[in-house]
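Notes, p. 3: input format for complexes.
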Amino acid sequence: MKDLLRTEHLTRDDVELLLDTAAQFAAEPLRSKDALAHKSVAIYMTKPSTRTRLASQTAVAHLGGSPIVLRGEDLQLGRGESIADTAKIFSGYCDALIVRTFAQSDVDELGKYASIPVINALTDDDHPTQLLADWLTIRETFGKDVSGRKFVYLGDGNNMAHSWLIMGAIMGAHVVAATPEGKWAPSAQAIATAKNIAAKSGATIEVTHDAQSAAKDASVLYTDVWMSMGDPESEKAEKIRALAPFAITDELMSKTSKDSIFMHCLPAHRGEEVMASVIDGPKSVIWREAFHRRTTIQSLLFHLTRGELKGSI
Ligand code: CP
Ligand code: NVA
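Output follows (313 residues plus phosphoric acid mono(formamide)ester):
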């Protein structure tokens, strides 16, 4: 596999390898400090980012490479240069490209025309690098055997909901997305992708509109912001009303298993999708999860640039 364009392109073996190496980078950040010596990694973002940008920059630095951060308006792309031409220029100067933008098809096209590895650092549809950090945190908490456990995402059926279902399917887990019905449910395509993978991996994929039953006996409750980057402000009031039953409260947490944890990709809005008492409470693992954004991106860069991931396509 040359790129990581979509979560669905990872195999379970790829994920296990990435998490094993990330755990080593957590313990010893500079263990491969020359892996990207004399190499450059472009980090191109047309949306804001705190964690992914810092994690990517520090990951490249820990591997001995030079990160080059570019904002959307920095490139000639905004003035009509094609994605194909831009991809070829990136390939001439750099050894990998990490990209965050709106359309998944733009990231797919960069991957197609670039000869260097291209990593999806969030699109409107998917957030694969976040799921690597999430699953390392899950593995650290519960171990590798996920049988009998339920992993529940609650809230907007957005990019995070899609990636949650698809990565859970790859990992053979029982994953649930509890979202409103209609336009804030996960896309039919993401659900179909997760179910196809689950048919082979033995995972269970559940999409529901009932937050209370979803939370019952869950090992993880996960949520994300209700207004994603690029969501129309004109829909905000209606959306917040529809999402209110999916907020993670102490009452909802009390329905989960005794050893359950709370997860959030961040940024968070306390008092909206999660109450402060939950996100800042004893079951929250958000800081460990955020820490693993660096360890997992470091691992991903390490293995992708060495051509060591198999991929499912
Ligand atoms: N979780 C995450 O992707 O955070 P940023 O948007 O700050 O990168
Ligand atoms: N769903 C959010 C995730 C942020 C990490 C967004 O796309 O803005």
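The pocket of norvaline (ligand 2) is lined by residues 122, 158-160, 224-225, 228-229, 265 (CB under 6 Å).
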